[in-house]
Amino acid sequence: MNNKDYKKLTPKEKAALKAETLKASREKVTQETLDSILAARKNKTMPKWFKSWSDMGLHRNHEGTPYKGINQFTLMLFGSTYTSPYWLSYNQAVKILKAKPKGSIKGKGVHIYHYVDKKFKGEVIGTKDGEEITEDRVIKVLALAGTVFNASLFEGLPSHYYNTPDKKAATKERLEDLDTVFNTYFKKTKVKLLESGSGAFYRPSNDSVNMPSFDSFKDNVSYYSVLAHEVAHSTMTKERCNRSGNNKFGSPKYAFEELVAELSSMFFMIESGHQAAPKDDNIAYLDNWLNLLKDHKDAIFKACSLANQAVNFIQDKGQMNLNTESAAA
Question: Are residues 248 and 187 in the same domain?
Fold first, then answer.
């Protein structure tokens, strides 16, 4: 659309164009990610679902800043065969840090994305020195930021690029730091924690999280991962993060809320510094999510964004102490 046509649009039409432009850019990125996932599954090269999360924690750029949203999701998915949490562009590794690739790295890069401003010339609102002054509109669109490679694909980088975080072995002992966070969260939000039976679920009708006993889990990490998942569901209410309800089991909205809760749990456990143990149903989750992505291209972006929002809410209400740098896009 040229500037002349854009000027003719009503404010409502301009808002619709903005939404459409952003959605189109997201769908393009999602389709590329989805195609890569489906190709990997078809060729049986798909790594075990997020198996590296417990080994490396958050994936980071060359400065050590954690990636967020779709970039973190993609790197966690496709970075499971590597031994470093750091990612660099080819130029950063070879031209700036003078490292050398360990053999061919062709086809081993991962695309990362960022939001950029796209300017549309708006209506004329006045003149100055004979020049028309227009009310320009800026729309944020998702664009390819570049291709990054895992640090373990290079030799000669500074030693910290090859370091992985110390692993915290899962045990049957309770984790005092997480108990403090969740207990504070329950106190601040008035969400009730109930321990009964063998089911783990959030019940909106009485604003309660039901958990099996701690001793019924194979280790402490499994318990807190499930607890984080159910607590994430509790953030859906209007006075908290205001997401749409859980809806009927098996429906797209139900699957989407499960995706948000599972991502929230994984992000929370990683940011807490504890191992996020993959559960037996992760592959089933993946299949459901892929079906959701096929029909709703924007789902993964929304889910990552809402998961970040839920985790931030839990951390804030739980007064969780975090020593993290500002996040990369």
Answer: yes
Task: Give domain status of residue 279, yes or no.
Answer: yes
Flag whether 328 is in a domain: no
Give every CB contact of residue 153 below 8 A, 6+ residues apart in sequence.
82, 101, 102, 105, 108
User: Which pLDDT does position 314 carry in this prediction?
Assistant: 96
pTM higher than 0.70: no
Within this chain, do residues 182 and 145 fall inside the same structural domain, yes or no? no
CB atoms closer than 10 angstroms to residue 245 = 12
47 and 133 fall within a common domain: yes
The yes-or-no verdict on residue 40 having pLDDT over 80 is no
pLDDT in tens, 109-131: 888 877 777 776 666 667 777 77
CA–CA separation, 79 and 76 (whole Å)? 5
Number of Cβ within a 10 Å radius of residue 89? 18
CB 41, CB 49: distance < 8 Å: no
35-68 as b/e: b if 16+ CB within 10 A: eebeeeeeeeebeebbebbbebbbbbbbeeebbb
How many residues would you count in the chain? 329
Question: What pLDDT does 248 receive?
Answer: 67
| Domain enclosing residue 237, as ranges | 176-317
- List C-alpha distances in Å: 4 to 98, 123, 132, 249: 50, 9, 14, 49
In a domain, 326, yes or no: no
Pairwise pLDDT comparison (51 vs 262), residue with the higher score = 262
pLDDT at 197: 74
The mean of the pLDDT values for the chain is 78
Domain end call among 117, 133, 162 = 162
Query: Exposed, middle or buried, 122 (CB in 10 Å: 0-12/13-18/19+)?
Result: middle
Alpha carbon 107 to its chain centroid, in Å, reads 24
What's the structural domain count of the chain?
2
Question: Highest mean pLDDT: which of 76-80, 177-181, 248-252, 279-283?
Answer: 177-181
